[in-house]
Every structure is written in C-alpha cells, then in structure tokens.
Amino acid sequence: MDRTFVGVPASPGIVVGPVRLLRWEVPDVRHRIIQDDAIVDEIARFHAAIGAAKERLRHVRARAEQTAGAEEAAIFDAQILILDDEMLLAEVESNIRQNYAAEKAFDLVMLEHRQQFARHAQPMLRERANDLTDVHIRVLTLLLGLPDHDPVDVPKGANAILVTHDLTPSLTVQLDRDAIIGIATDAGTRTSHVAILARSLGLPAVLGLRDATTRLTGSERAVLDGTAGVLAVNPTEPEVEAYRRRARREAEAQAQLREFATAEPVTLDGVRVRIYANVDLPEEAEAAARSGAEGVGLMRTEFLIVGRATMPDEDEQYRAYRRVVEAFGGRPVVIRTFDIGGDKLPAVGYPSEPNPFLGWRAIRMCLDEPELFKVQLRALLRAGAHGDVRIMLPLVVSLDEVRQARTLLTEACEELAERGAPFRADLPLGVMIETPAAAVAADSFGRDVSFFSIGTNDLVQYTLAVDRGNANLTSRFTPLHPAVLRLIRTIADAARAGGLEVSVCGEMASDPLMAFALIGLGLRVLSVAPRSVALVKRIVRGITADGASQAALEAVDAPTAAMAEQGLRRRFVAALGDAPFLRGGLPGLA
Ligand code: PEP
Ligand code: MG
C-alpha cells in the first residue's frame, strides 16, 4: 500500500476502484505580460475559451439532466448566462489591451466580481458568488490548459472513487451511481450534509481527509472503507483481500442482526423503547419501513431544495410526503419543515452569509417567506389525509416562532378548505430542540407543542461551538461532553413534566454506546439511520433501563467527555459483551 488516509467515516461500506481526482478549486495564475502585437490573438484566445466553456457547460447540463433531472440541471443555466455577460467580457478585453495575458485579465475581473457579489447587500445577488466561482474555475482551467473534467465525465461502469475537496451543489447534481461507487473529500464531517446525502444514496463515503486531493495524482487505485473512515491507496492484492474479508464480516454481522429487525425493543427489565428511522429521501421510504422501524422520527425535506434552482410546487411535495406516509402504513411519520441554510443550500437564490450556521436558516427563513412556507404546510396537511403525519419545526429558539408557524398552519388549512382539497387539519406540531436556548427553555414550549425531538448534530455544534462541518474539529465534536448530556437530561425532564413525547433524531442515537447513554438519560424514542434500526433494537434487548440509568448518572457527572465515555463503555461491555459491531462505526454511526 502506498499510503493510507484516515478521515471521518461518513457513509458505511467498503469499495475498491480507480481514483477519480477532481480538483475543483480556482487555480493559481502567474502574472504574465504580453507584447502589443499579441493582443488581438490573445483576445481571440480568450473568446475561444469562453466558447469552449459554454459548450462544456451545455454538455454537463445535458448529462446532469439525465442523472439528476431537469430542475437540478438548471443550476448550470445561471453559469452560462454569466459567460454571456457583455460587460464582464468587455472588462477582460480591456485588461488584455493593457498587456495582461488572457488568464490574468480574466482572473482579475472574476476576483473583483466575486468579492462584490459576496459583499452585496441583496442576498440573491450575494448567492451569485458561487456561480461566479464555478465559472472562474472552468474558464481558467481552459486558458491554462489544465486537465478539464467533471463528475459527469466518469463513464458508466467505471466504478470510480471520486476524490475532491468538497462536494458543491454543482458537483453533487452530477453524481451518477452507475459510474461512481464511493466519495472521498478533504472537507466535511459525519454530520455535514454531504455525509447525509451519501448515506441516502447508499454511497460509501469518507470525509475530512484534509489533503487527499493534493497528495493523489488520480492514477491510483484505492480501497475506500466508509465504515472505518479510511482511503487506502494502491493496495496490494493481499490487502484488497483483507478489506474484502472485512466487508464480508460486516455483511455477516448485518445478517446476524437482521433477526432483531422485527423484534420488539424491550429492555431486560421490561421498559419499552421505540425505534424509528430517519429518512432523507422519499426513495428510501420502503427500505426504511423494511428495516423494522416503528415509524419515521425525522423525514428531512431538504432533498426538495438542495442543489436545485427552483422551489418544488405543492403537488410535487405532496407526492414525496405521501410516498413515505404510505410506506409506513399508519405508523407515525414526523416530517420536518425546510431546514435550508447552514450546510443545506439550494443551487441559486440563497444568500451566502458570513456565518451560515448562525444565519438565516430553517424556521427563520420559513417565517420570513410565508408564501413559500405555506406551500410546504399545505402539502403536509394533504399528506396527513393518508396516515399519521406530524409536523416538526427545525432550529426553533423561541415560542414566538412556534406561534407564528401555527398561525401560518391555520391559514394553510383555510386555503385548502376553500379549495375543497382533502386534508387533515389537526396534525400534531412539534419542535426540534437543537440549540442550547431551546434546551434550557424547553419547558416554555410545553403548552404550544405536541412533541420534542432532540437534534444532537446541531445541539452539540451550538453547545460546544464546534462547527459540525469542520474536519479539523472532528475530535472536539463530543456528544458525551457533560454540557451536552446535562442539556439532554434537562430536555427529557421538561418533556416528562409537560407530558410530551420526546425523541432523539440526531446521529448520536445510531451509535451503540450513545444509544445506551440516551436510554439511561430517560429517552424512550430513538430515531436512527435505517441501517442501525436492528442494531439499536439488539442493544435495547440486551440491557436494563435501570443499569443504563446508573451509567448515565455517572456520565453526566463525569468532568470530561473522555471520562464519561470510559465509564459508559465499562458498563456497556459488562451488559452486552465486546462484539466488534457494538463498538460503533458499524453499521449506523455514519
Ligand atoms: C440534528 O441537528 O441533529 C438533526 C437531526 O438535523 P440535521 O442533521 O438535519 O441538521
Ligand atoms: Mg439540525
């Protein structure tokens, strides 16, 4: 093996294939002056590059339309328009006339425009900075004669491992599962949106590799182990065989767990726990229902928006929600309203913000855009006619937000009634508790909502001030930190006092040890990745709620996350033994 990169295990599975390196970054441009008599040719060279870039974008657009659909592919239209912008082209020409080489002339203009857009007062215009960056990269690549490739160029059947710095929306819409079998990125973490998307697509992924794109040449073959978080470059045959054996062992462990999928999750001392599934895409609904989940504890709805250029209409949304509701045939399905912003962004028209995780995100955006929000609420109310739908609001920090949302929900009911459309008016309304503010003041929501769901991905991020998407901070993202455990206990106590159901739907619930801790903290509903349903049921059936509660009490009092983990693990192993699949990472940690 030439080299092993260790990153974040973001989506499980082991694959072997050629590396497909995608350097999607603005290249460095050397300052180069041209002679007066070369100016005319240089302008022609620049226009040829613009023509080639447009041609290329049309090709990428057409291919993305086949793999991702017309709406998603529209992301490239905005970029073609930029290349048609006469003012921009004239500025570059003027620089060339002042003896700048075409690449430098273009680079200077783009840098200035990107800065202007990034600082623009109007959010819609600020967003255009992303498209400008894509265009900047594409045209410079052509002018500098650098290798030019896009994910759509990977031929079907290539079974390639895509290695790139980060998966931007414009790269994501190009992913073709017949060509790409795994994803490795320098940036990102287990809870960043790319990871969630990879899991939804069933693509093994390792993120947070930091410098893989600069160290690889693209001619390598690699093993990508999304379960352990490893990218092993140029493995020998015996090494590949060893990974294949591990993959087989994982499959066997999964097969052994399968019998628990249909088992009732009851602890040895008779406490009934409910295990729900998280669903990120409607296409996952049937598999999630087969996983043994007793309902859906979190259906994310950002798939309707992320990477797309237009908002989905009411019918499209209704069909997507109804599919999940029907797959679960009368079992509860908690659908979360749009959590746009942070790391989940539409392709166009969304502001780029200096602090997106503290910005115009989730319920804040929905309340400021009531017409857009009501389209979703009407679709949810209509889906409610087909089963047990519950509506959940993300990133709530105050009761005012819940009350405003309820007013809009009432209006949405009136609009549907006027139209004579079938719907259910009395859908339960709940909130995600995913900020320290909502956790500490959880009791203030009590009378206005029907349930709480703890979003530990964000709760950990905001409590510890650790960006969930920053690969340099992975070891500091510690859900067992005493502050986090105490907040979770506060939320569980507030729910109990208010007579509300409370669940955990963050990734923490999918980890064996942490699921044990959560049950110990009093949680009785866990919503986990579909792949983890059987595993978490297995854990529930092997422990006592009393033992878990004693372990959790100790953990809450432990001074550090590491000490909390040590104590919990001791009791966990005493109850369940030390089988490798109970150590986390497999199958659902991701
Ligand atoms: C969370 O924050 O824990 C959560 C479940 O929501 P998301 O990961 O979509 O932000
Ligand atoms: Mg969240």
Largest sheet: 8 strands, mixed
Using the CA coordinates, give the radius of gyration: 25 Å
Gap from first CA to last CA: 26 Å
| CATH topology term of the largest domain | TIM Barrel
Ligands bound, unique: phosphoenolpyruvate, magnesium ion
Helix content: 40-55%
**How many helices does DSSP assign?**
22
Find the CATH superfamily of the largest domain.
Phosphoenolpyruvate-binding domains
Q: Hey, roughly how much beta strand do the residues contain?
A: 5-15%
**Topology, number of strands:** 16
Which descriptor suits the 3D outline?
Answer: globular
| CATH level 1 name of the largest domain | Alpha Beta
Description:
The structure is a single chain. Strand 12, helix 15 and strand 13 form a beta-alpha-beta unit. This protein has 590 residues and is an alpha/beta fold. Helix 12 runs parallel beside helix 14. It has an 8-stranded mixed beta sheet. An 8-stranded parallel beta sheet has the order 15-14-13-12-11-10-9-16. The longest helix is centred in the first third of the chain and has 30 residues. The C terminus is likely disordered. The protein folds into 3 domains: 122 residues, Glucose Oxidase, domain 1 (3-Layer(bba) Sandwich), CATH 3.50.30; 108 residues, PtsI, HPr-binding domain (Enzyme I, Chain A, domain 2); 324 residues, Alpha-Beta Barrel (TIM Barrel). The site of magnesium ion (MG) has 5 residues, from helix 17. Phosphoenolpyruvate binds next to helix 17.
